């Protein structure tokens, strides 16, 4: 696998080539500052054009504000993408935001997501920032991934991010 920084909008458009399909049977909800697993069903298939365009624009904004976009390639095929937004967030504006992380369906559980997070943690340490803010889709696999990395329900809820994604589970990952 080749991990490298993506540097332009044409590379950001590769996002649509990642197969994000997934069957979801459970998700988490936040209740009394605790996450609770509940039954729910989603059949995630192909990308919606508006959603892809929104993500491409967000990656472009992140890149233009000195953030970091990482693409993962198996030969010429993109199999993962992640974006680190360096605009400070969290209640105390002391965290970077893991803005997006997608791994191709056929490449999950191979450590690609872990490696992207490690790259982001190193970048964050260089800037003397101690945590990543994660506003994550509440699906069981997604939240379990972050919890297994050591993320916790954030104590510094960013109200702007919460207003954008109130059903997300808002986490923080200490990087020290």
Mind explaining what this structure looks like?
It comes from Peptoniphilus stercorisuis. This is GNAT superfamily N-acetyltransferase. It holds the Pfam family Acetyltransf_10. This protein is α+β, with helices and mostly antiparallel strands. The chain has one domain: Aminopeptidase (3-Layer(aba) Sandwich). The protein is 28% helix and 39% strand. The protein has five helices and nine strands, in the order βαββαβββαβαβαβ. The chain has helices spanning 9-12, 49-64, 112-126, 140-148, 159-164, and strands at 2-5, 22-31, 34-44, 68-74, 77-89, 95-103, 131-136, 152-153, 169-174. The strands form two sheets. A seven-stranded mixed sheet has the order 1-4-5-6-7-9-8, with helices on both faces. α3 links the parallel β6 (95-103) and β7 (131-136). It starts with a strand and ends with a strand. The mean pLDDT is 93.
Question: What's this, in brief?
Answer:
28% of the residues lie in helices and 39% in strands. The protein has 176 residues and is of the alpha+beta class. The protein is globular, with a radius of gyration of 15 Å.
What is the number of independent domains? 1
Which range best describes the helical content: under 10%, 10-25%, 25-40%, 40-55%, 55-70% or over 70%? 25-40%
What CATH architecture would you give?
A: 3-Layer(aba) Sandwich
Write down the CATH topology: Aminopeptidase
Main β-sheet, spatial strand arrangement: 1-4-5-6-7-9-8
Number of E strands = 9
Termini separation: 27 Å
State the low-pLDDT regions, or none: none
Shape: globular
């Amino acid at each position: 696998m080749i991990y490298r920084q993506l540097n332009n909008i044409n590379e950001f458009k590769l996002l649509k080539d990642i197969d994000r399909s997934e069957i979801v049977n459970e998700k988490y909800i936040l209740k009394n500052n605790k996450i609770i697993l509940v039954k729910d069903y989603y059949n995630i298939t192909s990308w919606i054009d508006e959603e892809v365009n929104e993500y491409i624009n967000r990656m472009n904004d992140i890149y233009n504000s000195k953030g970091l976009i990482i693409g993962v390639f198996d030969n010429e095929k993109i199999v993962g993408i992640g974006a680190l937004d360096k605009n400070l967030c969290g209640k105390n504006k002391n965290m970077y935001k893991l803005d997006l992380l997608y791994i191709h369906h056929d490449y999950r559980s191979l450590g690609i997501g872990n490696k992207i997070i490690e790259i982001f943690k190193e970048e964050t340490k260089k800037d003397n920032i101690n945590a990543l803010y994660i506003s994550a889709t509440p699906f069981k696999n997604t939240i379990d991934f972050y919890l297994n990395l050591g993320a916790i329900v954030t104590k510094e809820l960013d109200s702007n991010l919460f207003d954008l994604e109130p059903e997300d589970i808002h986490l923080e990952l200490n990087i020290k």
